Amino acid sequence: MIRQKLEKILPAAKKYAGRLNRMKETIRVAVAGSIRRGEETVKDIDIVASSNNPRVVIDKFLKFKEIKEVLASGDTKVSVILNTPNIQLDLRVVKDDSYGAALQYFTGPKEFNIKIRSLAKMKGMKLNEYGLYDRETGKKLAGRNEKGIYHKLGLKYKKF
Question: ∠ CA(106), CA(116), CA(7), 5° rounding?
Answer without folding.
Answer: 35
